[in-house]
Write a structure and sequence with these properties.
The chain is an alpha+beta fold. Strands 1, 2, 3, 4, 7, 8, 9 and 10 form an 8-stranded antiparallel sheet that branches. The longest helix is centred in the last third of the chain and has 14 residues. The protein is globular.
């Protein structure tokens, strides 16, 4: 695999968005209700107006040791690239990972809001509800920072 030129990569994403990237984060888990589930390598980024995310095909590893991927052998990787206006985000909440997985697999929002016990002892995801009914579950590195940035950009626009 060739090394990625980060500056060139960012420049290309800014050209796609039509503006400078003001915030970016990495997510370790992603699902869109009724569509795809990705367990590794989701990049979120925004120019303050458009929220975009994409994934990268990479083999998962723990401490540099490859681990088996959760997809069936022979399944062909298909790149995920999605974007939508930040103003379309209707609600942001936290849900338990297990309920989000069940919801993503069955195609109905049966996710369970995270309570204080869940936040201490369970894996928690961020749920984005969009105005068109789309529901996205993500696991960003910092939920509070993501929420803060989304609110900041929504107030500016």
């Amino acid at each position: 695999m060739e090394p990625i030129d980060v500056v060139q990569f960012i420049r290309e994403r800014e050209e796609k968005l039509g503006g400078k990237i003001l915030y970016r984060s990495y997510c370790t888990w992603y699902a869109r209700l009724g569509h795809e589930i990705r367990e590794y390598g989701i990049l979120l980024y925004t120019d303050g107006k458009t929220f975009a995310y994409e994934d990268f095909d990479r083999e998962p590893a723990i401490l540099g040791i490859p681990i088996r991927r959760g997809k069936p052998r022979g399944e062909v990787y298909k790149k995920l690239e999605v974007s939508f206006p930040i103003r379309d985000i209707r609600d942001i909440s936290q849900v338990t990972w297990s309920s989000a997985v069940k919801a993503a697999r069955c195609g109905r929002d049966i996710s369970k809001s995270a309570n204080w016990f869940d936040r201490i002892f369970r894996r928690i995801l961020t749920k984005l509800s969009l105005s068109d009914g789309t529901i996205i579950y993500i696991e960003p590195f910092n939920h509070k920072e993501l929420v803060s940035k989304i609110k900041e950009f929504r107030e500016e626009s």
